[in-house]
Specification:
The chain has helices spanning about 5-10, 30-35, 45-55, 70-75, 135-140, 150-160, 180-195, 210-215, 235-240, 250-265, 280-290, 315-330, 350-355, and strands at about 85-90, 95-100, 105-115, 115-120, 125, 140-145, 170, 200-205, 225-230, 265-275, 295-300, 335. With about 350 residues, it is of the alpha/beta class. The strands form two sheets. A ten-stranded mixed beta sheet has the order 1-2-3-4-7-8-9-10-11-12, with helices on one face. A two-stranded antiparallel ribbon has the order 5-6.
């Protein structure tokens, strides 16, 4: 049975700052300290780091540069890799994965190839407690936070399957990243320093949790912050995102402005377009008025329909009309048409269909 936790329950100390093992997500210095605890010379820490992140080994028993006897002794110590439970490929090359974790839980990850880029959409929780009305993940309930190694593993899994270096990572899969802040920050550090992905190629998406954006800003990262608005006013936002009730839109935008002031980085606002719900020209104008003078960018996302609700995707003409209003109001805007529609592209769809 799924449980919807409070903010304090989700981000509890018992689920954060994991000690190694599992080894994935650990830095060179952490791995060096660990091998020395095992009675091995310090240089084996760098070897271990290379085999985990670059050779993408799945078992310590397979690290051929280690002494055979030691390999036997540590064979059962987990690196922290998942297994592919299900894999679905769309005609456009997008691959959606269901990954099985060590405790049997299933999460979604998506590999999105485009030109010279390979983007991975990662999950940060098993399920999601935010219960957005249009989201398949929210319909499935919440189980637990993902650990550092479980987030990093998703990127290595896609990299391994595509046999291609991952260039971009978006934290836009299952879950609310800012309800799992410690593990998300640890994963961002590992993806940057261990896997070698530039901070500006990393995007963290949030629906907005009071004070968490401000706290996130204090880390002065160069990552992109994407805030899911989906409505130009509080009343409609509460209808679409029930968890938004105690956090007024005006307060959320004020915190976003603080983020810009602290980091010098603009905020991306995600806005899923739902036909006849939030896609009217007057709603575009209302949105523009709220964002005027903001160092921001609006990313419009035509909706991916799911079976659980009746929301529909707007027509291209309706989408373009919304874009036109924002552009006339001097708001930076782009439209992101989701990839892999034939592969249950909406977050949580594939997991729900394969339960």
């Amino acid at each position: 049975m799924s449980v919807t936790p409070s903010v304090s329950q989700v981000d509890s100390p018992t689920t954060e700052k994991l000690a190694i093992p599992p080894l994935l997500g650990a830095s060179v210095s952490e791995l060096t300290a660990w091998v020395q605890q095992q009675g091995q010379p310090a240089y084996r820490g760098k070897q271990l780091h290379d085999w985990i992140y670059h050779q993408q080994v799945r078992s310590l028993a397979d690290i051929s540069v280690f002494p055979k006897q030691w390999r036997t002794e540590i064979a059962d110590i987990p690196i922290g890799r998942s297994t592919i439970h299900y894999r679905k490929v769309a005609p456009d090359g997008t691959v959606k994965y269901l990954l099985q974790l060590a405790d049997g839980q299933i999460i979604e990850t998506v590999g999105i190839p485009a030109d010279k880029r390979l983007t991975v959409c990662v999950s940060t929780q098993v399920g999601c407690p935010m219960a957005c009305d249009f989201c398949a993940t929210g319909k499935g309930g919440y189980k637990r936070n993902l650990a550092r190694h479980e987030i990093v593993d998703q990127v290595l899994t896609v990299q391994e399957d595509f046999q291609e270096r991952v260039s971009n990572v978006v934290f836009m899969g299952m879950g609310e990243p800012l309800l799992n802040t410690d593990n998300v920050l640890a994963a961002l550090t590992s993806l940057n320093q261990d896997v070698g992905i530039g901070q500006r190629m990393l995007t963290v998406s949030t629906v907005g949790i009071r004070d968490r954006i401000r706290q996130f800003a204090q880390h002065h990262l160069q990552v992109t912050l994407a805030v899911s608005l989906h409505a130009p006013n509080q009343a409609l936002r509460e209808q679409l995102i029930p968890s938004a009730r105690p956090y007024p839109l005006a307060d959320l935008l004020a915190e976003c402005r603080e983020y810009v002031a602290i980091t010098g980085r603009r905020v991306t606002f995600e806005y899923i377009l739902l036909a006849g719900v939030n896609d009217l020209p007057e709603q575009a104008l209302e949105l523009a008025q709220r964002l005027r003078g903001f160092q921001s960018h609006v990313n419009l996302i035509p909706y991916n329909p799911i079976q659980e609700v009746d929301y529909q995707r707007p027509s291209r003409d309706r989408i373009q009309a919304f874009v036109n209003v924002l552009q006339q109001q001097k708001i930076a805007v782009s439209v992101r048409y989701s990839r892999g529609l034939e592969a249950d592209a909406a977050c949580g769809q594939l997991r729900m269909s394969k339960k």
